[in-house]
Amino acid sequence: MAQHVDIALVRRSVSIEQILSHYDLLETLIRKSDNTFVGPCPIHQGTNKTQFSVSLSKNAFHCFGDCKGDPDLHNGGGNMFDLVRKMEQIDIPDDPDYRKATRKAALLVADWFGIGTQRKPWASSHHAPTPPVKPLVSPPAQATPPAPATAKEPLVNTPLTFTFPHLDHLQQFPPCPKDPIRPMPEGSPGASFGSQKPCVTLPSKREAKRGAIPCNVGFPFG
User: Fold this and answer.
1) How many domains does the chain have?
2) Within a domain: residue 32?
3) Which of 60, 92, 134, 199 could tie 176 with a disulfide, CB 3.0–4.6 Å?
């Protein structure tokens, strides 16, 4: 059984600078900037000190010398797996897209830097169906308790702060017999009406047409 390797994991875990350090190439290359190394090409053993360039941000290399005519490289360059493939001279027949060679290079890199290569156990979806996702149900909102009922205060008739000058002549009549606050004294002129009789004598229809007003209206004035 072929050994499994996670090529994407190896690519994320190892940089091309670490590959150069593994081959002791950092001693022969010159750091041109924080992102670039230049020097002679280690693949075809070149002597030009500027023909081989490495980009750390792209994790790739490029040779401006004899590697440009190499059919195994893309215009004389490639990524770190291509560098390992050329340095280790990995050549697998019937591998036009270099997938098998890249996998073998990734296995070497994973072994050099101790990256796990164990295959994860495969679980068939036919034997272990995924349980259905339960819909999210928000908890019911708690009802706000009603406010406690407050006892209503009894209505109190406050005394008037103004007078009726045009009705002052009516104060000579006694208070209303139904007034619970100021009952009519005995012997008063209005006491003969009794407690169930009205204290107002309404005009007749003929007097109402003439605009007459009740003749004996009692108001509880002080």
Assistant:
1) 2
2) yes
3) 199
> Which H or E run contains 30?
strand 30-31
pLDDT tens for the chain, 222 residues: list them.
Answer: 568 889 999 999 999 999 999 999 999 999 999 999 999 999 999 899 999 999 999 999 999 998 988 888 988 899 999 999 999 999 898 888 899 999 999 999 999 999 875 545 444 334 445 566 666 666 666 777 777 777 777 777 777 777 766 655 555 555 555 555 455 555 555 544 444 444 455 556 666 566 555 544 444 444
Asked, for residue 105, whether it belongs to a domain, the answer is: yes
Domain-located, residue 40: yes
Is there a domain that residue 42 lies in? yes
In terms of residue numbers, what domain contains 61?
A: 7-112
